[in-house]
Amino acid sequence: MLSPPGVMVSVNDHMMHVYTEGFGLQTLVFLSGAGTSAPVLDFKALYSKLSVQHRIAVVEKAGYGFSEAADVSRDIDMMLEETRAALNRAGQRPPYILFPHSMSGVEAVYWAQKYPDEVRAIIGLDPAIPEVYEKYPLPSKLMLNVVTLGARIGITRFFPAIADSSAAIQENQLSPHDEELYRALFYRNTQTSNMNEEIRMIKANAKKAAEQGVPDVPMYFFISNGEELPVENWQADLAMYSEALKNGKYLIIEGGHYLHNTNTEQIAEESAKFIAEL
């Protein structure tokens, strides 16, 4: 039995995991990218540096980390309301500074559009913006189902190198205990049904967010080289989005998509300075 380090809260008749640590006037909320099996461990290197001065919260969506998989829609409104409810039931209150990685960038933007008083700023960790999904090549339903089936019957356990290829492990960001926990969550959570549904819904969700325009909140994007992503002009598109903001900035980091594990110190320092200036 895997023991969650945070609190389990009931949302829409399923249990969600929210991990918090640190103290401070600002609450930083970390939102994982699609398919990240263990968000609370994936973000650990970064939030451990920021929790010295701030309150941090990691919300694990349905089918991620210690949260239960559930038969719930992955429409962006449903996901956002579940995230908000989970934070509330874990004792956290807005406004928040959002730290979205990858696909969660769309949810963060939508959150700032729909509830502007709840979002003080967005600090994007190679975050997707709604417009990139206009050219995003969705994997076939068959491919997603095959991967899910393979994970459910335990095939991934025969390939431990896949789990060990994660940036958090490759960059030696985790203790031996946390590495074992990461592997256990990876074997349990590889391409869950909720992850599949998120991917199937992403174009519709991105379209809904794009139709709301650009939110008027401060944003700081840390942008990778985009080489690991199936989207052309990733770096240029995110930079252009940032440049068009009234209070936006970005930093190009010539590294991979999980840059919060490869460039942790740099991102922590830059984030702390940005937050201090808000």
TrEMBL record:
Signal peptide: none annotated. GO terms for molecular function: hydrolase activity. Gene3D superfamilies: alpha/beta hydrolase. SUPFAM superfamilies: alpha/beta-Hydrolases. Keywords: Hydrolase. Pfam families: Abhydrolase_1. InterPro entries: AB_hydrolase_1, AB_hydrolase_fold. Residues 28-138 form the AB hydrolase-1 domain. It comes from the Bacteria. This is Alpha/beta hydrolase. It comes from Paenibacillus sp. AN1007.
